[in-house]
TrEMBL record:
Keywords: Endonuclease, Hydrolase, Nuclease, Nucleotidyltransferase, RNA-directed DNA polymerase, Transferase
GO MF annotation: an example: nucleic acid binding
Protein name: Uncharacterized protein
PROSITE patterns named among the record's database cross-references: INTEGRASE
Coiled coil regions in record: none
InterPro entries: DNA/RNA_pol_sf, Integrase_cat-core, Integrase_H2C2, Retrovirus_Pol_polyprotein, RNaseH-like_sf, RNaseH_sf, RT_RNaseH
GO biological process terms, semicolon-separated: DNA integration
Pfam family, one: Integrase_H2C2
CDD domains the record matches: RNase_HI_RT_Ty3 (cd09274)
Amino acid sequence: MPDGTERPIGYVSRSLNPAERNYSTIDKEALAMIVGVKKFHQFLYGKRFTIRTDHKPLEGLFGEKKGISAQASPRVQRWALTLAAYEYDIHVQYKAGTMNGNADALSRLPLPEMLEETPIPGDTIKLMELLEAIPLHSGQIRDWTRRDPVLSKVHQCALGNWPNITCPSKELQPYFNRRTEISQPDGCLLWGTRVIVPPKGRAQVLAVLHEAHPGISRTKSLALSYVWWPGLDQEIEEQVKQCGRCQQNQKTPAEAPLHPWEWPGQPWSRVHIDYAGPYKGEMFFVLIDAYSKWLEIHVMKSTTSTATIEKLREIFATHGLPKTVVSDSGTNFSSGEFE
């Protein structure tokens, strides 16, 4: 209003569908923002406006001073494109829920009467037990970040103290390269929507990621959605390579397709040669005609290139010279003397 007071012009609400109920907290908060922008499109399009949210990570994720992170989930990237239709004339601003009465009043109103307590389903109890077993929580990460000599510096820089040109030290370089996408909500460092895990918690996170033995690619894909630290991909590869169960379950290489030889047009135009054995201490020189399947087998005292050449001369003196001789890449067939 002209006097600075705020007056609501409309409210919108809707329930989450089954798929949206599985969204992370930051995705649910971003979804609320997108629903509101789409609902009041006719009021907002072509005008500069402010979005006030009580979820601070959205301020860094969709803020006008930062582009959307390449590490963001495809869903968040699609929402960023939706907001791009407003010509980036948008500013996301954090406002605590207790101060955001226009939006939160209806959801915070007390019920006129107490609802009857419903029994908790067994699946919910199992989920609560699983949540209690989560190895890390924000308090631990915040404490480890504050105590870590590198991440504590990153935290200070993320408050707006990054150097303008060059990185001050090699240990800060991976974070300096991502400085425009690093935020620090509640004392925890985020790269985009991924938590930057301090060194003390990395072994626990790797153990959780690797718990189902999903292999290198799927473990990296899982980590891509939740966590990051310098050298994460290499640590995942090393962990999977050292896991005996993963090595036993890895896929065998695909068999190479067969490339059959063309059928020769006449006898003795192409012959195939090889050695067989040893059998009872003897080596055998084998020659077969591809057209007639005529077979020549000779016991050999030596399998050198010289002995092979002598035996071929003997056979060719009897049957004539073929157009093509086929062999494997054995040293007695690939030597300069044989060629």
